[in-house]
Design a protein that fits this description.
Blueprint: E1 2-5, E2 10-12, E3 21-23, E4 29-31, H1 34-41, E5 48-49
Antiparallel strand pairs: 1-4, 1-5, 2-3
Length: about 90
């Protein structure tokens, strides 16, 4: 289970399962055992949380969003021939 630590620089363990978990940078997400995750999430003010869910894709049958309009390039104008040129 992924657990995010608000502030990095944290190493915890070894736990009874023999594993050590490390959050190096602020906001790092680390995969921990479910039992450990429950313990960490229960720490009041510990800065541990579950990551935000990914946004849901549009449901089947829903129209795709309108594409960004593209302004066509202006066509090059033909150079007119100079009068009297041979």
């Amino acid at each position: 289970m992924l657990i995010v630590k608000e502030e990095g620089g944290c190493t915890l363990g070894p736990f009874p399962n023999g594993k050590t978990y490390e959050w190096i940078h602020d906001g790092d997400a680390v995969d921990v055992d479910p039992e450990v995750a429950a313990t960490l999430l229960a720490i009041d003010g510990g800065g541990f949380s579950e990551p935000a869910p990914d946004p849901e894709p549009p449901a089947a049958g829903q129209p795709a969003p309108d594409p960004v309009p593209v302004t066509p390039a202006e066509p090059e104008t033909a150079k007119s021939e100079q009068p009297g040129a041979a």
